[in-house]
């Protein structure tokens, strides 16, 4: 059986870092959300702090759908994937992204395992402000990060296989180990009744 792991969390939480670590203990291809975003964002003069144009995410959604369609068409089972997504609860675009990934998992007859990566506000602001993030077209606005922590929640898909994982004081290795354990428990059916 294929497994689609979806790492969700605010910018700076360590989604890609954890995905890389997880892929060393759980064989899977990483599909980072910036694969969809950066081809479009590179067309703009984005400074990482100024709000982006309103319609820009429609274009990144099209790129995401093309990648997911290719996965469905060309990846034979058992192909495992680790996706990253900066989803926000109550946000229509975040819900649409989740649905796109969920639909691809269903079409591939893959097990979808959502992981909510949670982090303390000050630690998240520290992580988001690292200069290396800017080179990868990622947000570096620590104040916006603090505001997001106060005003929003990481997307909760209300899926019975969702794991909430606080990574504030965890290393990427410890986070990957916890996620791997969860995936194996879900895949083995040791997760309880629906």
Offer a concise description of the structure:
By secondary structure, this protein is α/β, with parallel strands linked by helices.
Could you please describe the fold and organization of this structure?
The chain is of the alpha/beta class and 194 residues long. The chain has helices at 15-25, 33-41, 56-74, 92-107, 121-128, 131-135, 142-151, 172-187, and strands at 3-8, 29-31, 81-85, 111-118, 163-166. The protein has a five-stranded parallel beta sheet with strand order 2-3-1-4-5, with helices on both faces. α1 crosses α8. The radius of gyration is 16 Å and the shape is globular. The model has no long low-confidence stretch (mean pLDDT 87).
The structure class reads: alpha/beta
The coarse overall form would be: globular
What is the quaternary state of this protein? single chain
What distance lies between the first and last C-alpha atoms, to the nearest angstrom?
19 Å
Radius of gyration over C-alpha positions, nearest whole angstrom: 16 Å
Task: Pick out the low-confidence regions.
Answer: none
Output the strand order for the largest sheet: 2-3-1-4-5
Average pLDDT rating: 87
Helical residue percent?
40-55%
Biggest sheet descriptor: 5 strands, parallel
β-strand number: 5
Percent of residues in β-strands:
5-15%
Query: So how many helices?
Result: 8
Following the backbone from N to C, one meets helices and strands in this order, namely EHEHHEHEHHHEH
Question: Secondary-structure blueprint of this entry?
Answer:
Elements: E1 3-8, H1 15-25, E2 29-31, H2 33-41, H3 56-74, E3 81-85, H4 92-107, E4 111-118, H5 121-128, H6 131-135, H7 142-151, E5 163-166, H8 172-187
Parallel strand pairs: 1-3, 1-4, 2-3, 4-5
Helix pairs in contact: 1-8, 2-3, 3-4, 5-7
């Amino acid at each position: 059986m294929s497994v689609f792991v979806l790492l969700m969390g605010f910018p700076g939480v360590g989604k890609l870092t954890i995905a890389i670590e997880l892929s060393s203990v759980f064989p899977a291809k990483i599909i980072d959300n910036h694969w969809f975003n950066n081809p479009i964002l590179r067309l703009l003069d984005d400074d990482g702090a100024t709000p982006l144009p309103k319609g820009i995410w429609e274009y990144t959604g099209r790129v995401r759908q093309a990648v997911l369609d290719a996965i469905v068409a060309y990846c034979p089972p058992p192909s495992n994937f680790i996706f990253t997504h900066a989803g926000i609860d109550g946000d229509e675009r975040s819900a649409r992204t989740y649905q796109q990934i969920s639909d691809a998992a269903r079409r591939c007859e893959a097990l979808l395992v959502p992981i909510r990566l949670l982090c303390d506000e000050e630690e998240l602001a520290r992580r988001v402000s690292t200069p290396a993030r800017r080179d990868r077209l990622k947000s570096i606005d620590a104040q916006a990060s603090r505001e997001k922590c106060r005003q929003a929640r990481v997307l909760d898909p209300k899926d019975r296989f969702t794991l909430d994982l606080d990574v504030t004081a965890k290393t990427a290795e410890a986070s990957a180990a916890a996620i791997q354990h969860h995936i194996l428990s879900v895949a083995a059916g040791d997760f309880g009744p629906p």
